[in-house]
Amino acid sequence: MSTQSPDCFQCHHFYVTWDAAAPRGCRHFGFKTTLLPAQVVLSSSGQPCQAFEPRPMPQKPAAPPRGQRGDR
Is the pLDDT of residue 63 over 90? Predict the structure, then answer.
């Protein structure tokens, strides 16, 4: 088992807060911190974060069919 923490920036639960004293947060565990949440979980539990869920990839909008863009 690896002790490497997952990338919080790629996690569904990660968010940026408005709090300048604790600018990063984890919705799953419900805390804000100055560090990355996965670092806090690793230091407090001794195990990598088990709540990591990849962020959904944004959908690209479908291009309109040729000739139907409204161009004149």
Answer: no
